[in-house]
Design a protein that fits this description.
By secondary structure, this protein is an alpha+beta fold. Helix content is about 25%, strand content about 30%. A hairpin with a 2-residue loop joins strand 1 and strand 2.
């Protein structure tokens, strides 16, 4: 190696080893106005999720660069039975990071500061257990989620357990749900309050059948989903099962989509084109990315004016993307090709969210006539689909709800419809 190149390399290594490390720990922290708190039987849990910039200032390094995200927790133990409570980080993220593991990711950037970085990470970390009459706070390091974050906090003692769920919206993420105020979609006089399951079943059957284009004149994908429950539980169930928010269609998100397409990689937050119900685009959408951007499960939801025993009712559409095609029918020139068996995507979502431990009841409601494989219908970009015509209805409550505790409502039966139809076929 030439002397000049050797000196240059040594200088670069020296600069890397002497990189500054100057974390800023503020009291109160900059996210103090976003702290959420919940209490149950003498235990109060407070929680917050720092933004990427706040986390970098706090830890002195860019955690998001390695897909790491800190969660701040405070547990106030006023349990009347004088129990010690232990936080279970695996409930928050089964692949969470220890402070030493996370700090080690930055050794190559600042080798001479490795011990200082690790010490700082350990100092910030939440320390178990929480003794009676005390308050413990600190950070847990988990995998990065953008858009919104569901945080499950599970506490255990020798005799009991406590579970809490928090949902946070990333203020820096330009998601499609930021376009609308979900608390002001319907005027109070437009709401329809329902008290019985029979009333709800009839109202769900009367909801719009399919999505539309902007003009409302052309029909698209069938509306095959309904979710009933508190918004926090519905959102948390999706995040818990790996569904991610979708970005607004912008120049930046389109470029990231193109790069993912060209590289064959996946893009967890890829934009979803707008479809219309009630004359407006989806209120929120979510997707579960697979191996590449060509394949994903994705869904759109609209808040209906229905309220069942005070809980919101959402109608939605799910389909499975199996490829990409170019078309002038899409504002982005390209679009995904859907699996024509949309009932399979509907079934997949039911099974997937059942494992979120928040689905307490399930029913099916006939919403349209059966569409056969031999005589399919077509969505707005020309993809065929067939369906038994039912929409699945899922009711959400606070976790944990065991699989064997799920109640199946005696409503319509798509399995029976399929069998009778096949028996009647020539």
């Amino acid at each position: 190696m030439a002397p000049a190149r050797s000196i240059l390399l040594a200088g670069l290594l020296a600069l890397a080893g002497c990189r500054s490390f100057d974390p800023v720990v503020e009291d109160p922290p900059p996210f103090a106005d976003r702290v959420q708190a919940q209490a149950a039987e003498g235990v109060t849990v407070s929680c917050a999720v720092p933004t990427r910039a706040e986390a970098e200032a706090l830890y002195g390094v860019d955690l998001a660069r390695f897909g790491i995200q800190p969660i701040w927790l405070e547990v106030d133990n006023r349990d009347a039975d004088d129990r010690f409570w232990w936080l279970l980080p695996a409930g928050m993220d089964p692949h969470h990071y220890s402070p030493t593991e996370a700090a080690y990711a930055f050794h190559a950037d600042a080798s001479s500061l490795a011990e200082e970085i690790e010490g700082h990470f350990r100092e910030l970390h939440f320390a178990n257990p929480v003794p009676p009459g005390s308050k413990v706070s600190g950070y847990l390091l988990v995998n990065l989620d953008e858009g919104y974050k569901a945080v499950d906090v599970d506490l255990m003692s020798r005799e009991a357990s406590r579970s809490f769920t928090f949902v946070f919206v990333d203020p820096d993420f330009r998601a499609d749900f930021t376009r609308v105020d979900l608390d002001a979609i319907w005027a109070p006089e437009e709401l329809v309050h329902l008290d019985t399951e029979d009333e709800l079943r009839a109202a769900i059957a009367d909801l719009p059948t399919c999505t539309n284009d902007r003009s409302g004149e052309s029909e698209g994908d069938p509306l095959n989903l309904v979710m009933v429950g508190e918004r926090r539980e519905v959102f948390a169930a999706m995040v818990r099962r790996g569904w991610h928010a979708t970005e607004l269609i912008t120049r930046g998100s389109l470029w990231r989509t193109v790069k993912s397409f060209l590289s064959g990689s996946r893009y967890r937050y890829s934009p979803i084109s707008p479809l219309y119900v009630y004359g407006r685009p989806q209120d929120f959408s979510a997707q579960k990315a697979r191996g590449s951007i060509n394949e994903r499960n994705h869904m759109r939801f609209w808040q209906t004016p229905l309220r069942f025993r005070g809980r919101e009712v959402w109608v939605g559409q799910i389909s499975r993307d199996i490829g990409v095609k170019f078309t002038l029918k899409s504002p982005t020139i390209s679009t995904h090709v859907i699996d024509p068996d949309v009932d399979e995507a509907r079934r997949y979502l039911l099974e997937d969210l059942a494992y979120s431990q928040t689905v307490v009841s399930v029913g099916f409601v006939r919403a349209q006539e059966r569409v056969t494989r031999e005589a399919p219908r077509f969505n707005l970009v020309g993809d065929p689909y067939f369906t038994d015509g039912h929409r699945v209805v899922m009711f959400f409550e606070r976790r944990p709800v065991a699989l064997d505790a799920m109640r199946f409502l005696p409503w319509d039966d798509p399995g029976k419809v399929r069998i009778l139809t096949e028996e009647a076929a020539p």
